[in-house]
Structure formats: C-alpha cells, structure tokens
C-alpha cells in the first residue's frame, strides 16, 4: 500500500488513506483487536513504533540466544472451554502455534525454607500445599475450589464486550447461573475470600505471593475474578510455552492480520491522536504522516494515551478520576542470562519465585521472578546452554537523572546483587555465566513505550474488585483503549480478553457483520 508522507511545504499534515480502524501499538491487546476486526472484514491499520510486534511479549536475539522481553508463563493456550483466548485469537485468523506444556507453573522458594510447587495437576498441588499446612487442608481446598467457581462461570460463556447490552442479555438468558455468579464476584478481592477459609498467617502470606506474582499487589487488592482465572486455568488449560519463544504469539497474530487483509507498519510512532469536533478521527506520526479512520484504538497505557497522545488539557474528567483510584505499578530490573547447562539440575522447574523476607515482598527487589524457557524449548539457546530470565520489581525513580557511567555502574551492581541471591538456588550460576544483558525501568520505558516503564495499573487503595477498571470505550467519541489499562488488567490472556471485547464493541458500532 502506498504511503504518502507529510510534505514540508504543507501547513497541515497531509492525510493519507482512510481506514475503518487504526490501532496504536501491536501489543497482544492491540493485535487481538486488530485481527478480530480484520476477520470481520474491517480495513485495519496497526501502527507500531518498534521494529517487531509484541510489545512486552516481544523478543530479542543476542549471540545465539533468543530472549523473551517479559515473563514466559503463558495462560490462555488451552484447547477447551471459552477462556483459551490466545488459542481462539490465533484460530480466528487461521494461524497456528505449537505449544509445549509446562508441568509445574511455579516453584516457590519462600521464607523459613518453605518450598511449594504448583503442579499442573490440581490434586497434586493441593496435596503438596496440604502437607506444608496440615491443619489447613480443608480451608485450602475450599479457597481454591471457590476460585474454580469463578472460572467455571467464565469458561461456560462466550467472552465479549460487557459494554454491549444485547450481548449481556444473550449471555444472561443462555446462562443465568454463570452471570449471577460473576456479578457476585466482580466487586470482591481475593483477601476477603481467602480469610473466610484460611486462618494460618503464613498460609495467608502464601496466598499473598500467589497473587502478587502476577497482579503486583497482595491478596486484599487483587480482584477475585482474575484470581479465578489464574488459579484455575493453570490446572485446566495449563501453562503452555509457545515453541520458538513468546515472541511467536505476536509474530503469528501479525501474520494472521495481514492474511485477513489488515496492514501493520513498524517504526511508525504515533505522536498524537487527532481530535476534530470532540471526536477522534485519526493519528499523526512523529514523521508527520497522518492516517484517518472511523475508529481509533490505543494499546498504549492510559498514562501514555491521556497526557501524551491526547494533550493533558483535553483529559476527560473520568480519566482524572481513574488516576485517583489506580496508580502505576513498578517496572522491573531484568537480567537476561545465558548460562552453561551444567548450572541446572535435570529436575529444575521452568518458573521460580524467590522471597527471603515476607516483610520485604512488595519492596523493590524484594521478590525475584525467574523464567528458564529453554527447559521447555532448548532451541532458544546454543547447544549446551540455557536462558535464565530473572526480574524483580524496581521503580523508575531509582534510575532517573544518572550520568551514563553512573547508570551503567549502578546497573552492574544491582545485577550482581541478584546473581548472588540466585546462587543459593542455582549454585555455580556465577561461574557458569556466558552472557548477561540488564534492563532497567528506563529500558522498559524506552523500548516498550510504557510511562515510567510500568508493568501496568494497580489499585492505589483497596477497591471493589474489578468494578473500577474501565472497559474499552473512552469519554472521547471514536477513541477506545485496549490492553492492560482496561478491564480486566495485566496478563496476556487478560489483554486478549480486552482485545476481543474492544473489537466486538467496535464491530457493533460500525455495524460490521
Ligand atoms: N504472562 C507473561 O508471562 C507475560 C509476558 C509478556 C507480557 N505479558 C503481559 O502483556 C501485557 C501487555 O500487553 P498490552 O497489549 O497491554 O501492551 P504492550 O505494552 O505489551 O504493547 C503495547 C505496544 O504499543 C506500542 N506503542 C505504544 N505507544 C505507541 C505509539 N505512540 N506509537 C506506536 N506504537 C506505540 C509499544 O511499542 C508496544 O509494542 C502486560 O500486562 C503483561 O502482563 C505477560
Ligand atoms: C448480564 C449480567 C446480569 C451480568 C454480567 C456479568 C458478566 C457476564 C461478567 C463477565 C465478566 C467477564 C467476562 C470477565 C472476564 C475476565 C477475564 C477474562 C479475566 C482474565 C484474567 C487473566 C489474568 C488476570 C491473567 C494474568 C496473568 C498474568 C498477569 C501473568 C503474569 C505472569 C508473570 C509476570 C509471572 C512471572 C512469574 C514467574 C516468572 C515465576
């Protein structure tokens, strides 16, 4: 398709071809929206500022290693029910991805030498946790069974836009029990449910880390609907790793988008969303090119959308209110390591969480997350080597305003501090290191285009479950948001839901078949 760029002699940026929908950003939220709409016949354009698709689920290659940018614990690849949203998103545009089942979701290494492995097999997990807390066996089962109730409701219904009244009526008449079940859990957080079944303080701390490791907040602040998905789907569809790396999900979706007639442009950074008569009508890139469309979707975070792509002065009051309820979560300090295979024993699990002191769980560097994707897909590293991706929460403030040499030094010191802590679990790591690349909040901000490098929004105080999370429409007509700044929040399967919902709402608005 020809692209006419803005000519310097024009006062106004020149409009190029019109589209039905423009999606700003090719994160999984953006790509699911785009592919769903293209599959319905819409003329879709995706604009991505980076050189490949995927955003935080992208990848990069160094010296024979293929590193995932983010974590490699992927939900949503099951083959039954309705909650397998990644499987369904790929199928919708006739692309396929081989996945590799992970037998253990997480191996926890917790204070007091407590170790727990979350097995794919639900009964095996309950058995293992019950052995550590024998007096709480009953409560453990009741708590996790209650999470299953939420999951079973979700997994029994078509998952589309909750902003579409006809869909809501349809699902209600098809499955009133499931809908009422979900209505009951929408305002709830995990903490209150867990405390109804469990009283042991250490076990409640365990429930906190079970939540924190994906929601970045403890159980009292984590929505019960999301916990229902995470704590059940890991045993139902399971955790499955995409062969070739997490980056393959976006690559395949981009391929499917093009097959379905959509367009994706890389190195296309949107500078502003164009508003005319109060309505979003197009975008302008940093190089001056203008594209117009009937609907605009932003896959950037809400902080990047309102305040950067839309000027601060035009921020709708609803967005100001949202900012009072939600704040930016920290970013991560990420160590992408290549290590000699001999560092890992054959029975090592793919994902680990390390907390040394419960009091420090939420502090910067208090929790370490580890992904070792080569245990599932050896082809991501040279023969005889593994990838270890270790990351830990870290705020941008810690990395701002440093001259280059000080920044590099600080990065190095922080990285070796993490390697030292990992030595306890992987003895010989330091000696077996072959490659190390370190990313900070600054790297996440720069490469992922996320304000302060944030992992996503977290409640600034205890809220009523998911009730405060906005859906896809915004207060600006014609402008929609998708991704982890929208209902139901962070996570690939969560943003895939947001993409299905956003595309559904737009398809209804545009009267697409
Ligand atoms: N489970 C896991 O292991 C795992 C792994 C990776 C990512 N994730 C999840 O993925 C979620 C993020 O997905 P998402 O869809 O919200 O988005 P994202 O942040 O991953 O992607 C947004 C994309 O938009 C692009 N973009 C932003 N501003 C732009 C602009 N002005 N012009 C052009 N492009 C622009 C970015 O470059 C990026 O590619 C996170 O919540 C994270 O939890 C999970
Ligand atoms: C009609 C009536 C009456 C009513 C209505 C009601 C209804 C219907 C409702 C509905 C609802 C819904 C649909 C909902 C939905 C939801 C969803 C889908 C959700 C989802 C979720 C998901 C999630 C949250 C996920 C997540 C994940 C994550 C985040 C992950 C991450 C990871 C990481 C980071 C980790 C790492 C670790 C290591 C390495 C160890």
UniProtKB/TrEMBL annotation:
EC number of the protein: 5.2.1.13
Membrane-topology descriptor: Peripheral membrane protein
Subcellular location: Membrane
Pathway: Carotenoid biosynthesis; lycopene biosynthesis
UniProt domain Amine oxidase: residue ranges: 28-506
Any GO MF annotation of the entry: carotenoid isomerase activity
Keywords: Carotenoid biosynthesis, FAD, Flavoprotein, Isomerase, Membrane, NAD, NADP, Transit peptide
Tree of life domain: Bacteria
InterPro entries: Amino_oxidase, CrtISO, CrtISO-like, FAD/NAD-bd_sf
Catalysed reaction, written as an equation: 7,7',9,9'-tetra-cis-lycopene = all-trans-lycopene
Required co-factors: FAD; NADP(+); NAD(+)
One annotated Gene Ontology cellular component of this protein: membrane
GO biological process annotation, one example: carotenoid biosynthetic process
Location (main, coarse): membrane
Similarity section: Belongs to the carotenoid/retinoid oxidoreductase family. CrtISO subfamily.
Name the UniProt record assigns to this protein: prolycopene isomerase
